[in-house]
Structure formats: structure tokens, C-alpha cells
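Researcher: I'm preparing a figure for a lab meeting and need a structural model of a single chain. I don't have an experimental structure, so a prediction will have to do for now. The sequence is pasted below. Please return the structure as C-alpha cells so I can convert it later.
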Amino acid sequence: MKSAKPSFKFVSAESPMSSANLSAGFDVLGVALDAYHDELDIELDTSQKGVSFRSNVPLPEENTASRAAELFLEKVDYRGGINISLRKGIPAGKGLGSSGASAAGVAFALNVAFGNVLGLNEVIDIAANSESSPHADNVSASLLGGFSFVYSKSPYNAFSIYREWEFYLIIPKSETPQSKTELLRKALGEPVPFEKFVEEKYALNSMLRGLLYDDKSSFGKGMNVDSYHQYVRSRTGLYSDFVKLKKPLLDSGALGVCISGAGPSIIVLPGESMTLDDVNKITEENGVTADTVETKVSEGIKIKKKEI
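Model: Understood. Here is the structure written out cell by cell.
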């Protein structure tokens, strides 16, 4: 436990969405994207105790933003109060890192308020453990920006590589169940076949090579692997749109197509000749009702305002 005093009483931040897993990178790879973001204000109040929280959309009392604040305050041994105002801009339940962005934004903003008393990896660990099923691929992407690779657990640690790449998102309008991520994680109880395990390691290395050499084709090849988690989870029926769209998207010039996070959203790495109009045409032809969005890689959380 680190004892710290605040440097700022008010911090405002903007936390970007993320797309995690990217097929072969289950739980260890994510990318921050600029299509959507959450905005939040953190205000420290020494006259009260505990966390006070409000949001522009209904959220459960136990939410990742509040949990991140509680874990941070415990870590720095702060006995005062904190007021959190959250304005959700990231669609929830679509595999776009909505809960992770909230947790990452709060943990990062609080660290700024306390003079960056914690290292970034400590902030990542707090944000990751704010999730009901802890994982760091989403939160590390939002925090670090670019493509984040999680390389250890307990505590979580990550590094990132930034590339100015463009993606398309296909966000189905179909309803998703509550606690979708937990439900889909529980579906992963089967042992991974040895050949599939090795195949995914090749694919992940292909993605890393793509980033190191700025080679989108290499990265897309890794995205396209029929990963174990996508295969098993597809049997729940929640990935039916992905099953319909993957082949026609690849046939129309996509370099890579996979599920974003726990889905049902789909992330597409387009080739040079592919346009968003092509994506819209394919979704319509295959009977998929969805929003389609053009997005670029984000540099991560931005601090908008600080007050002493």
C-alpha cells in the first residue's frame, strides 16, 4: 500500500473504446479505437468518505468505474471521498470494451489526481481487476493506446505498439443477454486441441510481425485464424452474423475479419481497395442489420482538464 496525497482536486478525462482478442490474441491482445469514447469527471472531496457515482445511463451499483475507484483509493490509502460523473459514449454489450474503458478512465484519472503515484502497469492491474471476470486486454488498450499486448498476470502488465491503421466496425443491432461476457467465458470449458493451440501461436506471431514491420497483410492473416474461443462461442448463437459475413468480407478485399471482444461486433481490417460502402453492401446482401463505422487506432486516454 502506498500512502499519497492528491495533487489535483478535479480531473476530466476521455477514455476510448477498444477491440480485444482479435481472434488469436484471446485475453492478451487489444487495440484502442477512436470511434467511441466515455467522458468522466473525478472530484476529490475530503469532507466525505467513499465513492459517489452518477452516470448518464443506468448502470448497476456494482460497476467497473466505481470498483476501479475503490481499488485505487485502497491502494494509495486515501480516506477521503470521491465523486465520479460518467458520460457513456461507448455502446454497451457489443464487444467494444465499454466496461473496460470506464474502469481504465477512472483509474487513470485518479492516478493523475494523485500525481501519478502509481506506475502505468499498476493502473492497468487496478482496471483489469475491476471487471467481474478480470482480464486486461481491453483496459490496457484504452490506457496505453495502440495495440496492447498483455504479458503477465498477478499483477497484469502490458506494452503497446502504435500504428496509424484504419478499421471498420460492424455493430449488429440484435439484442445481447445481460452479463454476456461472463456467459461466454463460461462457455470456454473444453480443453484446447494441441494442433489448435499451436496454430493460434503462429497466428499471434503473424500479428506481432505485422505490427513490427507495418505489414497489414501479416496482421490480417492472424485475425483470420479460426480461433478456439470463436469456434466454441459461436455455438451459443451470438455470432451468427459473423458466420454469415466473414467469407464475403474477405472475398471483397478485407485483409482480416474477426469478432471484436466478446462480440457480437465484428472488426474488419480493410485492404487498399475496400470501402465502407462495400461493407454496407455485404451486410445488406446477407440480411444483417447493423451499424457500420470507420475508425482509426487511438492513442489512448486523454486528460481534458485538471484543477488544483
